Amino acid sequence: MNLAISMNTILNFLHSMSLSTSNKQWLADHLYEEVKAEREAATTASGWPKIRREDMHISPEVMKLVEDIEPLPDDFDYDKARLEYLLKKHG
Questions:
Q1: Residue 3: what pLDDT?
Q2: CA 49 – CA 41 distance, rounded (Å)
Q3: Phi and psi of 33, rounded to 5°?
Q4: By CB count within 10 A, which of 19, 55, 71, 74 is most buried?
Q5: CA angle 27, 49, 7 (to 5 degrees)
Q6: What CA–CA distances, in Å, run from 22 to 7, 12, 19, 29?
Q7: What is the average pLDDT across 61-65?
Q8: Summary count for the chain: helices (H), strands (E)
Q9: Average pLDDT over residues 14-41
């Protein structure tokens, strides 16, 4: 069964219960920890949002061109790579 409940309905339901302050704090802490974990999972180590395949709208032609490209590792040193490229090009 697919049930849609508004956030106001959930909040009203919680208010209708006789929750102690410590119960409310427990609930808030657990919800916050879940939010924090979800945000951390959705960003890279440098804080940029992760791009998921389902977020991308790429034509099949372009996708075929890039399908075998491996992403760079998180510890990739751009400055070092640029320096090596310039030294190789201008020797």
A1: 67
A2: 9
A3: -60, -40
A4: 19
A5: 35
A6: 22, 18, 8, 10
A7: 86
A8: 4, 0
A9: 92
The whole-angstrom separation of Cα 75 and Cα 46 is 10
Output the pLDDT for position 24.
94
Q: 86: part of which helix (H) or strand (E)?
A: helix 78-90
pLDDT at res. 20: 94
φ and ψ at residue 43, rounded to 5 degrees: -130, 155
User: pLDDT grade, residue 22 (50/70/90)?
Assistant: very high
- C-alpha to C-alpha distances, 78 to 44, 51, 82, nearest whole angstrom: 16, 20, 6
**Tokens 């009203």 belong to residue:** 12
Structure tokens at 89: 């090009």
Task: Give the C-alpha separation, 73 to 84, whole Å.
Answer: 17
pLDDT at 83: 94
Domain spans, the chain: 7-90
